[in-house]
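Below is how a single chain appears once it has passed through the pipeline. First comes the sequence as given, then the structure the pipeline wrote out for it. We keep one example in the README because the format questions we get most often are answered faster by looking than by reading.
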Amino acid sequence: MITINKSNKNWDNFNNDFIFKFVNDIFLTAPPKPTVTLQPSRTQIYSGETVTVRCEIQGGEGAQWTYEWRRGQVNTGQSSNEYRISRVTESDGGGYSCRGRRSSSWTEWSDITTLRVTVPIKPTVTLQPSWTQIYSGETVTLRCEIQGGEGAQWTYEWRAAKLNTPPTSSEYRITVTESDSGGYSCRGTRTYLLTEWSDTITLTVSSKPKAELRADSTAVPVGGSVTLTCSVSPPSSSSSSSSGWKYYWYRDGKSYEAVTNGQISVSEGGLYSCRGGRGEPVYYTEDSESVRIDTTVSNRPVVTLYPNWSEIYRGETITVRCEIHGGDTEWDYEWETNSTIKPPNQNEYRIRSASSSNSGNYRCKGRMKSSQHKTTEWSDSVTLTVSDNKPKAELRADRTAVPVGGSVTLTCSVSPSSSSGWKYYWYRNRKPYEPVTNGQISVSEGGLYSCRGGRGEPVYYTEDSESVWIDTTVSNRPVVTLYPNWSEIYRGETITVRCEIHGGDTEWDYEWETNSTIKPPNQTEYRIRSASSSNSGNYRCKGRMKSSQHKTTEWSDSVTLTVSDSKSYLL
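Resulting structure:
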């Protein structure tokens, strides 16, 4: 460094241009700027440790320097390039700077290096309220507490998952969102003193919860009550671990009452809902789903089937009716069934073409039109069974021929025999005969008879029965004769078996019956050209009028034909 002393009386004689030229022509080298370092060089120094503060001048090695130190704005009195602080305390904290002097020249002051002393005090972060589960929209306070540091003026530093503007106070009040979830820790600072960082406390923020409402019954019994339970569960959890809730109840959309235990007993019907609330200001959950509670009245409904048949067949018409006796109350009706098709909410359900989909148990209850929360109990169940198999009538005759002057009894029935309500429709020669209800008629005319059952309105018909042929017996009597009429016939002989019917000019068709091996053709006579033992047997016949196929004779008496396999010899 060059010093120009202006006190020289000749100075004023210098020309200004000369001075500037003189200065510019001189190479000036300014001493370097010192640097203050700390050993150890950690940013965190604990009280009681030994610290070395060193002043380093780069490029000034080998020179004889004298040092001046300041802590803050106060000179420390140290003159060496370093000094050792044993058992550092809070009072040793501060900003250190230095400069060096060689001869009469001083360096600049170094930049300030701050020594912060950390005391072995560990703050604690607490959460208020101290609920294990916090929900989006709630307000919580994080508090940094320094035990043993009471009365001191602390500034606080926070570390968090999300802090837009870190607070410097001991309390951090947040109206949380899910993005505020994470770990929070703090430490205290005071001048050049630091505490340790607290342990991290984890804040878990969940989406807004929804209250859950359960009822032990949905109908208040006569003279009784129903217990309703409201609860708040954390999302994706089966247990209600969140706490501090007060429960707010609503009936028909209006405030009902607030209780702390989440359970009430009610004896009034209505549409109930609830929600939870906690904290100050109160944080509310979403409302629960509504639960309808009915009040049971004493009127008792009854389900009837019309017609009341034990079994219904596919295609029949049936009415299921709900009847409620007592007073002039007007009702809305509700049905419950395990059939595939549910009835409409009316007092009767008319099934115009039943199928197995309608089979099931039916019960009903009524709801007063004037007070929708008042209902009857459920009726007893009535079972409707619909068979997909259309029934077929069955026809039986006590005989197949009307005797002379007599009759035949025909019986028509529908299986199963337990089915009821049938009316029977009769047909003779495929034309309607007469309908009767008891399924039995007596006939004296021959013909081809059949029947079917029908019931209901409109009439549902069964399938037709199998047809039964009934003959009418005439008085003409057939006779069987053998020609020639020998008592014994031998193998190889010729014999004629003839059916003769006397009386009038009637033309007949003939029918034979025999126990021989060979049956005769349906003609008036049977000519055996070479008899054998196969022709032996009893023969009888009857005639059927060609002009009226339902009129027949009785069977003739039997005639026995005996054919011997032994050939006869003349003696």
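Confidence is low (pLDDT under 50) at residues 1-14, 16-28, 236-240.

See the next section for the split statistics.
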